[in-house]
Write the structure tokens for this entry.
Amino acid sequence: RFDERYKSFLIFWQEHLTCCGLNSKNDWKDPLGSEARATCLCIFNDQATRDRECLPHDDGGNTVYVYKPCVDEFSAFVGKYMIIIGVMILVICILEIAAVVGACLLVRQWREDEGYVI
């Protein structure tokens, strides 16, 4: 059983990534229940798009379609923006290194001004 924070978190990502469940639609006891229906139910009318973006689900004898798992959508999202994410991480690392070097230089200068020997 999931606590309410996890459910809210999962529903938030389902809305933004158009997906259903973290690992599979079976993460929900009932993916078309009241909590998940709005974000899990696949509403594409075009069959080619629906077959590419959605998975079949048995809803009491009727076959309906639900979105693919969020882990697949998140992997595609990260893959699409991998260069941008990598550059941002590299810039942050360079800034961190520059801050440490700057702090070391400031301490060295302070010690020299105060007459301490390094």
User: Anything to note?
Assistant: Strands lie at 54-59, 62-67. Helices lie at 4-17, 37-40, 47-53, 70-80, 82-114. The chain has a mean pLDDT of 81. The first helix runs from residue 4 to 17.
